[in-house]
Design brief:
By secondary structure, this protein is mainly alpha-helical. The chain has 13 helices and no strands. The termini are far apart.
Length: 252
C-alpha cells in the first residue's frame, strides 16, 4: 500500500469513527428525550448502551430511562434488571429505588422487596412525603396496617392534605377496624380529588359496615360511572373484598 493509499485509509477510518460516534450520541440523546413512546425509548437506549461508548455518567440515565420504559410496558423483570444496573453504578439515586420498589410490587407482589427499596429511598430523601406514602401503601397491602399508619402520618406531616396519603391512611384505619377515622380520611380524599373514583368504593364498604346502605350504593354507582369500563370497576371491587379478607386479623 503506497503512502497516498494509507493516508486515504486513515482519513476514511477517522470519518467513519466520527460518524459512528455521532450516531451513538444521537441514540443517547433520543434515549433521554423520548418520553411518550416506550418502544422507541428502549430502541435508542439499547443502541446507546450496547455501543460501549457511554461513560458511567451517561450510562446511568440511559439504563434508568430504559428501565422506566420497560416498566411502562409492564415488562417488570427487565425493568428491575436495569434498575439493578443503575444502582450498581450509582447507589445514591432515591427515585431508582422507588421505581424498583414499584416494579417488585406490581410484578411479583413482593412486598418485602418493595418495602426495602422504599426504605432505601427514604434514607436518601427523608423529607419526601411521596416516599413515605409509597411505603405506607405496601404496608397496607402486606397486612401491617400499624406500620402503614405510622408512615402515612409521617407523609401527612411533610405534606398535609396529600390526597393519595389520606386515601392510604383511610385504608390502614379500615384494616384496623377504625371505621369512623377511615370514613373521615375517605371524605377528605374525595373533597380534595374529585377524580378519586376508587375511594368511593372504599368509602362504600365503610358506609355499608356502618349501616348507611343507601349512601354506600350511591358511592358504588359513582365509582362505576367513573371507572374506565366495567372490567376496571370489577377489578377494584374485588380488590376491596380481597383487602378486607386479608386484613381480618387486624380488626380490633
Amino acid at each position: 500500500m503506497n503512502k497516498i493509499s494509507r493516508i486515504g485509509l486513515i482519513i476514511t477510518v477517522m470519518l467513519m469513527s466520527s460518524f459512528i460516534g455521532a450516531v451513538e450520541f444521537d441514540d443517547a440523546q433520543k434515549c433521554n428525550e423520548i418520553k411518550d413512546d416506550p418502544d422507541l425509548t428502549i430502541q435508542y437506549c439499547t443502541s446507546a448502551i450496547e455501543s460501549g461508548e457511554l461513560s458511567n455518567e451517561n450510562l446511568v440515565p440511559a439504563m434508568a430511562n430504559r428501565g422506566y420504559a420497560y416498566y411502562k410496558k409492564r415488562i417488570y423483570d427487565q425493568a428491575i434488571s436495569d434498575f439493578n444496573a443503575v444502582i450498581r453504578l450509582d447507589p445514591n439515586i432515591a427515585r431508582i429505588y422507588v421505581a424498583r420498589g414499584m416494579a417488585y410490587d406490581y410484578s411479583e407482589r413482593n412486598y418485602d422487596e418493595a418495602i426495602d427499596n422504599y426504605t432505601s429511598a427514604i434514607r436518601l430523601k427523608p423529607n419526601s412525603a411521596r416516599y413515605y406514602n409509597k411505603r405506607c401503601w405496601v404496608f397496607v397491602l402486606k397486612g401491617d396496617a400499624e406500620s402503614a399508619l405510622s408512615d402515612c402520618n409521617k407523609s401527612l406531616v411533610l405534606r398535609p392534605d396529600y390526597p393519595t396519603t389520606l386515601d392510604n391512611r383511610g385504608l390502614a384505619h379500615f384494616a384496623l377496624g377504625n371505621y369512623q377515622a377511615a370514613l373521615k380520611d375517605f371524605n377528605r380524599t374525595i373533597q380534595l380529588d374529585s377524580a378519586a373514583w376508587s375511594t368511593h368504593l372504599y368509602r362504600a364498604r365503610v358506609l355499608e359496615i356502618l349501616g348507611n346502605t343507601s349512601q354506600a350504593e350511591a358511592d358504588r354507582n359513582i365509582a362505576r360511572e367513573n371507572a374506565q369500563g366495567e372490567e376496571q370497576y370489577g377489578i377494584w371491587f374485588r380488590s376491596v373484598e380481597g383487602f378486607e379478607k386479608n386484613n381480618q386479623h387486624l380488626k380490633k
